[in-house]
Amino acid sequence: MPIVSTQHMDVAAGSLPTHQLLNVDGKRIPDEELDHHLKDLKEADLADFLRDMVVLRRMDNEATALQRQGQLGLWAPLLGQEAAQIGSVRATNDDDFIFPSYREHGVAWARGVQAEDLLSVWRGAQASGWDPNEVNIACQQIVIGSQALHAAGYGMGIKFDGGEQVSVAYFGDGATSQGDVNEAMVFAASYQAPVLFFCQNNQWAISEPVALQSRTNIADRAHGFGLKTWRVDGNDILAVYAATKAALAHARHGLGPTFIEAVTYRMGSHTTADDPTRYRKSEQLEEWKAKDPIDRLVKYLHEMGADVQSYEQRAQNAADEMAAKLRAAITTMEDPKVEELFTNVYAEPHEPTERAAKNYLDYLAEFEGGE
């Protein structure tokens, strides 16, 4: 008999409400706490949200196909999490600095990173596809939860400098079991640093269900550190956007760090090396398909009487354009040269690394063709 069951776990009721501003049928639900954060949103902004999510889903599908065709070494799909990523990043200011995990492709893209530059890392052509200082988003972090510490430190620096930016850390439910994330929240709370910890609870840490990690809502954990906390329907882009606006305002005004648990679902695999059919049931997938974030926004636009067909066509055109450009770039991308292994290891010239590069290149030169 196993020590713990991964299928039937008793989870205590959380102390925080789960905010939902759009239900699965696209009906608007009033929310006294968050509604005022939507007052400046216009129909055109909602159309932009739709375009962003459609383009992002297409990018994700293209990347998965490219990996299957041998063009990428690996890919971490985000299918189903489009609202959590687009809704949150579109609420940030341009000078807020973001520290993502390996699944925040939409956050990077919305910040201005080109899709082909993003995928170049997963192809192995570059160590980083962009300059973090140009778009105020760090490189994707593979080590689980480490970016939370980076965000806490950056936030402390903002406070010491008297800045008005907010440092934002993205991570998944699995990362909340890592010491780094908990230590980051301790430091952020102790120094009252302007940090937003954004957790996309997609229900799975690879094959481990979230109920095995936490016997209460993840948001309650953060609440225990003294962080102002919100729990939202992560497939409701309005709830995500409004809660992120609220959390950023709280941190930006010197009131301390904040935390958002966006409850969503990882519809695809953990990575393209994973087979989720081995550990989850098809019934669960069907349940979450009915909560699809794109379908929900489309229904809401219909409720508003918007010209949904034109918005959907615009989104599809943008997705097609991105996909064509992405595929052309990836399939013709050159492999990195051997000497590039040693570049950008240090910010300043570093004699031991330069010596190691020369020794390695001399070693390769001993072989025919220098390979």
Looking at this protein, list some descriptive labels.
magnesium ion binding; two-stranded antiparallel ribbon; 371 residues; disordered N terminus; Alpha-ketoacid_DH_E1_comp; thiamine pyrophosphate; 2 domains; alpha/beta
Q: Brief description of this entry?
A:
The chain is of the alpha/beta class. Helix content is 45%, strand content 9%. A hairpin with a 2-residue loop joins β5 and β6 (208-209).
Strand content is 5-15%
Low-confidence stretches: 1-11
Mean pLDDT: 94
Strand arrangement across the biggest beta sheet: 1-7-8-4-3-2
Give me the number of helical elements: 14
How would you portray this structure in words?
The chain is of the alpha/beta class and 371 residues long. It folds into two domains: 18-336, Rossmann fold (3-Layer(aba) Sandwich); 338-371. It is 45% helix and 9% strand. It contains 14 helices and eight strands. It has helices at residues 43-68, 82-89, 105-110, 115-123, 132-135, 146-161, 179-191, 210-213, 218-224, 237-252, 282-289, 293-304, 308-331, 351-365; strands at residues 18-19, 97-99, 167-172, 195-201, 204-205, 208-209, 228-233, 258-263. The strands form two sheets. Strands 1-7-8-4-3-2 form a six-stranded parallel β-sheet, with helices on both faces. The longest helix is centred in the N-terminal third of the chain and has 26 residues, at 43-68. It is globular.
